[in-house]
């Protein structure tokens, strides 16, 4: 098993107009590990994920996926995105398709599976993750938690090499957060490489192998015990203190 | 280069070699794409030109449709006629927007008390949207004078304009209604929960959002109305089309029609660009950015 990083970022810079969101970001994500990105709103967590998926063009620096530089202008962005799964904060399910159709769209239209193959695989995945009964429902008939779990299954159905999760529980009622995070735990146990932008500090602490505190740069990185237990940077300490005061850790 | 300047919140920034190389590559790619586009446009243009001018009937066609002599005669008269089209557009356009909005609001009124108004508005839009404009024009322009009513005008311009308003209001009402119905019910709920009455909710919360959303399709209908003002010529009003017809029927040369056609095209282009611009601006404002 190779230990070359699945995702590597070097000196990544990204601005929108005059606001500089990512100043100088370095990041390495080893295979089969979970990296949690924490930080205040506007610290660049989502932007970092969008850059990794080539939804945003970076100003400077470079990003590698499995050793291949994907920020080279000659890269085929679609080919890169085929290898990365993304789950969004607002689910972004297609409302005109059933759960099953949402999941089989990319396997059929992008990866060339037959309808029977794609549906068989999707049903198996849904069954395993406790959504078997919902396969033929439309997204608006599902609870938020079920919708987000469907979105995770949709991202997994193309067998990505890397899964990016962008604040996936931020829009959920507290009692639904558990089921979604439970699913992420299962996905981790299967060995998926993941980068998670999150405000769920307890979850980050439990599930992450690496925690990065982001503020335009990766201000502090380490194991959860290091970052949450004994943060070195003053700004990390202040951030975590606020989180504790809010009763979120 | 302005792109490389240091942004607020940092002291120094020097673009890396990597960035410079990347941007050089992108510029080269843009140049290549532009060159390819220019070449292919030129080739298509030349082929079309040769194909048309090489056709057996080209000389006759050119004389009948593209005679510079007749174009010179027709242009001033066509332009004079066009003034009527423009005035019609201004008056009918405003009337259509007002009447269309009223119809749309009438159709969205709730409650059993409003049933007759709702039904009437529905029947109106169903009827006038289905009726071909030209038939509506003929009925109004020749039917109304035939009634010989006291005090009702026989002026073909006024009657033709009225027919345009009748038909276009029905279209525009449906555009407005689609806009009103696209405003999410939660907006109405929020407004009602603040104590706004049904009418105030419509006026201050629903309509502003609805109207903004339907601006592009509305401008589209206005462009269409602009052309259709040319149809009042069948009533005998001397607009750009009729002015062309007068010259054309005298000498059996169709160049004036071509002139009138081009004048209309020249008139609608700014309107179309305006539509594109407004739409693009609205999209930009709504989009969260990104490449896809």
Can you give a write-up of this model?
The complex is a heterodimer of chains A (249) and B (292). With 249 residues, chain A is an alpha/beta fold. Chain A has one domain (7-245): 3-Layer(aba) Sandwich (Rossmann fold), CATH 3.40.50.300. Helix content of chain A is 37%, strand content 23%. Chain A has helices at residues 45-52, 77-81, 99-109, 115-128, 144-156, 174-189, 201-207, 224-229, 234-245; strands at 7-16, 19-29, 34-38, 60-65, 68-69, 84-87, 162-166, 194-197, 210-214, 218-222. A 6-stranded mixed sheet of chain A has the order 6-7-8-3-9-10, with helices on both faces. A 4-stranded antiparallel sheet of chain A has the order 2-1-4-5, covered by helices on one side. In chain A, helix 3 (99-109) crosses helix 4 and helix 3 packs parallel to helix 5 (144-156). Chain A is globular and about 55 Å long. The two termini of chain A are 35 Å apart. The model of chain A has no long low-confidence stretch (mean pLDDT 92). Chain B is mainly alpha-helical. Chain B folds into 2 domains: 1-37; 68-282, Orthogonal Bundle (MetI-like fold). In chain B, helix 3 (68-108) crosses helix 6 (156-182), helix 3 runs antiparallel to helix 9 (240-251) and helix 9 (240-251) runs antiparallel to helix 10. The longest helix of chain B has 41 residues, at 68-108. Chain B starts with 16 loop residues before the first helix and ends in a 6-residue tail after the last helix. The interface between A and B is medium-sized, with 23 and 18 residues.
Structural class by secondary-structure content of chain A: alpha/beta
Order of helices and strands of chain B: HHHHHHHHHH
The overall strand count of chain B is 0
Give the tally of β-strands of chain A.
10
**Average pLDDT, all residues of chain A:** 92
Unreliable spans of chain B are: none
Largest sheet of chain A: 6 strands, mixed
Q: What is the helix fraction of residues of chain B, given as a range?
A: over 70%
Shape of chain B: flat
Order of strands in the sheet with most strands of chain A:
6-7-8-3-9-10
- Shape-level CATH architecture of the largest domain in chain B: Orthogonal Bundle
Number of helices of chain B: 10
